[in-house]
Task: structure prediction
Amino acid sequence: MFTGIIEAVGRIGRLERKGSDARAFIETLGLDLSDVLLGDSIAVNGVCLTAVELPGDGFSADVSGETLSRTAFANLKVGSAVNLEKALTPTTRLGGHMVSGHVDGVGEVISRAEDGRSIQFKIKTPTELARYIAEKGSITVNGVSLTVNRVDGAEFDLNIVPHTLQETTMSEFVVGTKVNLEVDLIARYLERMMLGDRAAESGVGGISMEFLAENGFLSR
Result:
């Protein structure tokens, strides 16, 4: 588990394709690895990866075909800057929100505008994730815990303050940048719980307006 509070910005040192998957070496630069052991988890742009080699100046991790297909990791190349966060411990301050490092989908930056010293971004999310994103709710973008300012259909707005721009890779976002999105854990589990016994039925999808009406959550 993670908090979405980025600890350092590293970069991709090597990226070796191995059939349908890959092995990445991430140069951790300012991230202290003295307490990291083989098998520990580190979030890279919000993607939970397992350290399989620790040569001292970074770590290597295997990136599965599933991860490459469901995240923006496939768009990274040698030299790309990445947000880094080590897995939380029982004494970690929970300054962000509970983040699993399991990316739900890939969004796209569709606008960037200055607002005083801050930057406002508008991001378009995959249609199937829109129902989990709420105004003033939490979302993780490339591993960064953020508050949603506004929601309009499958698009949501973020206001990024100077500190976050300085300490993460968000300053590099431009129109067209692909980003990893992880929605709030509570929203996902709440939807599943609302299905009740139907959750055990094969082929049952998420909550729909029809489901809500059938179960008394909406007036007909």
Summary: The helical segments are 65-70, 162-167, 185-194, 209-214. The mean pLDDT is 90. The longest helix spans residues 185-194. Residues 8-86 form a domain with the Elongation Factor Tu (Ef-tu); domain 3 fold (CATH 2.40.30.20).
